[in-house]
Design a protein that fits this description.
alpha+beta, Beta-Lactamase, 2 domains, six-stranded antiparallel beta sheet
Length: 275
């Protein structure tokens, strides 16, 4: 082999080596690019995994917050219900306080009135004070005070307001509502209080005036003032207290009047004897 052929063969090998080297370099470059792409995808997948984990944690937190909100909403409703109950109780207490104040005021006024009632033994003054109590404390616009004549067993109107006493008949025991109350000793109250004209045979309330079990008369109410629509609980208590005090005061004043008349008669008889 000639020297030229040897050089040509060496050159060919060098070129083949360079080709192989170039292909190796290109393959290396491809591997690097592929590696870079895979690393990038790995980073993306890791980021997606991190985001998914964060989203899952966020969902768990959202669910936890929803549960807390539901619990707070239930507590809020319970508190609102408690507040409503407390407000209702406060309103009830306030209304009851007003009622008690009204009852105390009425009872205080009745105490003052009964004090005045027992401060006199004049029969007419006693009837006048009883009438004022019925007007001011009970709100009676038309009423009558009947006294029982035990000798004849009849009831006669002795005082009243709003109705001429001459219009009242003389009731026998058991006759009409007034006579029935006088005989039984039990109070009568109409079931319905209306604004119809008063009827002397149909009182709205009829109360016996009793000393223990002894009835000495009755109090009949025929009409209430316009502003008073019905009898309240305090009215029934006032009727009961008034009936007892009025009966005692009337009985005492009648005894006093009779004793005064007897004393006057005796004194006149003694004056005649001494002269």
């Amino acid at each position: 082999m000639t020297e030229k052929e040897k050089q040509s063969k060496v050159t060919q090998r060098a070129e083949d080596f360079l080709q192989v080297f170039k292909k190796g370099a290109e393959f290396t470059q491809q591997l690097l690019r592929e590696n870079e792409r895979l690393r990038f995808q790995l980073v993306q997948l890791e980021e997606q995994g991190r985001l998914a984990s964060c989203a899952e944690q966020a969902m768990r937190k959202v669910e936890s917050l929803k549960s807390q909100v539901a619990d707070l909403e239930r507590e809020k409703q319970e508190i609102l219900q408690r507040i409503d109950r407390v407000e209702a109780e406060n309103i009830d207490f306030a209304n009851r306080y007003v009622e008690i104040e009204a009852e105390n005021s009425s009872l205080a006024n009745l105490y003052i009135a009964t004090y005045q009632l027992h401060s006199t033994l004049d029969f007419r003054d006693v009837l006048k004070i009883i009438s004022e109590i019925i007007i001011n404390l009970i709100g009676g616009e038309e009423f009558a005070i009947f006294l029982l004549d035990e000798n004849s067993g009849t009831l006669q109107a002795m005082a009243g307001e709003g109705i001429d006493l001459r219009h009242f008949p003389v009731y026998s025991l058991g006759e009409g509502i007034a006579g029935g109350v006088a005989r039984s000793g039990e109070s009568f109250f109409a079931e319905v209080l209306d604004a119809a004209p008063s009827d002397i045979d149909a009182p709205l309330a009829c109360i016996p005036l009793k000393i223990k079990d002894r009835v000495i008369g009755v109090l009949a109410v025929y009409k209430l003032f316009v502003q008073k629509r019905c009898f309240d609980d305090i009215d029934y208590e006032l009727f009961t207290l008034l009936a007892g005090h009025a009966a005692t005061a009337i009985f005492a004043s009648k005894l006093y009047s009779e004793s005064e008349r007897k004393l006057t008669t005796i004194q006149g008889f003694l004056d005649l004897l001494t002269k």
